[in-house]
Amino acid sequence: MTLHQIKETIEIDSVTTDSDGNAYMQKRINLRDGFVHQLMQVDFFEDAIPFIRGGAVDRPNMEIVISAYPSIPTLMNFQENTPVYVYRYPAAGDDSVLFKACGDMVENTFTDFHQFPSPQIASQSFDRFYSNHVYINLHLMGIPDTEYGNICLSFLMLLNDTRVPVLEAGVGILAERHNAMCAELMSNGHMVTRATLQGNVFPMWRFGGIRPEHTFLPTSAGSYFLPIATRDEEAMQTTAGIRSVVADARSMSAYDAAFGARFPDWILFCTNSIVNV
Q1: Pairing of strands 147-163, 97-104
Q2: Fewest CB atoms within 10 A around its CB: which of 2, 149, 181, 232?
Q3: How far is Cα 101 from Cα 89, in angstroms, rounded to an integer?
């Protein structure tokens, strides 16, 4: 176990955005092989006031991401209102992101940054990674085909390096490479209503009684133990049949209705202690 402090800077005198208003900057820091690196502390500092263009309506924004592999821009927007900023980095909660900060760049003053984890938590972080490098990624969003400049940022990272077996290091690197292939478009939440929440939390109140104990069709037991006759050949599955099974698996049963003939794999019940299903 070895504590390893890294101090690094990114200093760019001039950068020009592309036709979408984006400019990406990156720096790689090499680490030792065969170690698990625990990112214990992260801090960054803006050393100079950036040169920006535009007024209050089209001020540029900046993203900073520290990751084990290069952070890949997604198809999601950073800002939906005018001006629209596109191709942002993955969310801070993504497994590939070790640290993220977003800043609103204002003329003649330092950038107002918001970071994840917060400064309090970032000073006692427990993120671990196995790759022998770490990347600092910068994303500037502004007016298309416009020059910005005087970007100067300093970074401090405290790593706790511990040697691990070759197998553990290899599997860890494979997992991090997989996580680096971020989803370009995420939608992982769903809307609920007050009535739905009440029904999920208090189903007995909603239906005014207990759920029937017998929720399985009694005729399905035979088809489970004897899906085909003893002298018959097994029928081949068809595309329509597979689609029907998948559709049944995705369909929800009514609250007080039987599950049906197909048994879910998580159901266990006994029939007079003779057989277990």
Answers
A1: unpaired
A2: 232
A3: 11
- CA-wise closest residue to 63 among 28, 9, 100: 100
Q: What pTM, to 2 d.p., does this model score?
A: 0.69
Instruction: Give the pLDDT confidence of 244-269 residue by residue, as tens digits.
Output: 877 776 766 665 565 555 555 455 55
pLDDT (tens digit per residue) in 112-122 = 999 998 888 87
Strand 112-116 to strand 97-104: parallel, antiparallel, or no bridges (unpaired)?
A: antiparallel
Domain that holds residue 209: 202-276
Residues 154 and 243 in one domain: no
Which among 92, 110, 116 is positioned nearest to 45, based on CA atoms? Answer: 110
3-state secondary structure of 80: coil
Number of domains in the chain: 2
What's the chain's length in residues? 277
Q: What is the pLDDT of residues 154-195, one digit of tens each?
A: 999 999 999 999 999 999 999 999 888 877 888 777 777 877
Q: Is residue 190 part of a domain?
A: no
